[in-house]
Specification:
Two copies of one chain form a homodimer.
Chain A: H1 2-14, H2 21-32, E1 36-38, H3 39-48, H4 55-68, E2 71-74, E3 82-85, E4 92-97, E5 103-107, H5 110-122, E6 125-136
Parallel strand pairs in A: 4-6
Antiparallel strand pairs in A: 1-3, 2-3, 4-5
The structure holds a DNA duplex (30 and 30 nucleotides).
DNA sequence: TTAACAATTGAGATTCAGTCTCAATCTCAA
DNA sequence: TTGAGATTGAGACTGAATCTCAATTGTTAA
């Protein structure tokens, strides 16, 4: 957590951007929630706490967080994006239930091997990945 | 290709849905393009060929194609979705260049192993997957 | 300290992919 | 031939995300 927060502050510094009041509010909120969240949820939980930050600033700051590498943007096949703060887990994916929407995280070091293989084979410098398996969870499969 | 087209027709039959003129037009167009495409592109290439099908029908038919399992919907981190017709390749992912947007496909049977491992571990019935590596291609990396 | 400039913000307008509505049309089994 | 249900197109609508722009807040150089 601390590292990630610091990472963001360092990113701002390196780009001569300010660590403004609003950016601090958003950063704290992001790292106080666990797991995944949506931009609109973040906006409304700030509203509930009377911490007024505009929608534009929320989206702008989320972009910065993604660029700084402390948050990642994921897509679960819905219209809008989800975010999650990056943990220590590096080889991380999701199982998404097509019926009830449940999301299970997993970690599997095979992802790292795959990443290295394909990076080498295609002469690609891989920065991040996204891996989702869609199907039916134990409750929803018949 | 043929198999996939047939698969769609069988899906329609199994749901007592018609293989209408419009659905045929869209099906043919989808399988005449290679690789990835976007819904709006499809719409406009049909317009150019004077084959008028409404936007609603294009989206509706793409949904059916996805449900039938002959086309898959992918997300490359942009606001809108991309589609691709499903090939024989089962263990298939993408490398997406963050600078020039180039997309390289790859196939790697490690994906199958990963899928089986996680399906078993989490008691999940996996229907499909999506794997994207984001980074810089050989041209764009310094 | 001040002047000049850049970064930051909020409110609301705007965009754009995708969905919905609904009347008109088509299909096909009885 | 009838009617129930499937299908369609046009355009209204939705909702996430972006853009605009004037006001405000740093920051830097002199």
């Amino acid at each position: 957590m601390f590292n990630q927060k610091k990472k963001f502050q360092e990113y701002l510094k390196s780009k001569s951007l300010a660590f403004s009041k609003e950016r601090k509010i958003i950063l704290d909120e992001v790292f106080s929630t666990s797991g995944h969240f949506e931009a609109e949820d973040l906006l409304f939980s700030l509203r509930k706490k009377k911490k007024r930050v505009s929608r534009a600033t929320v989206y702008r700051t989320l972009d910065l967080l993604v660029k700084s590498g402390s948050v990642s943007k994921i897509n679960f096949g819905e219209a809008h994006s989800h975010y999650e703060h990056i943990l220590e887990q590096e080889y991380h994916g999701h199982l998404v239930c097509l019926k009830c929407g449940k999301i299970i995280e997993f970690e599997n070091e095979k992802i790292g091997k795959l990443k290295n293989e394909e990076a080498k084979r295609n002469n690609f410098q891989i920065m991040r990945h996204s891996l989702e398996f869609y199907g039916y969870c134990s409750r929803c499969r018949k």
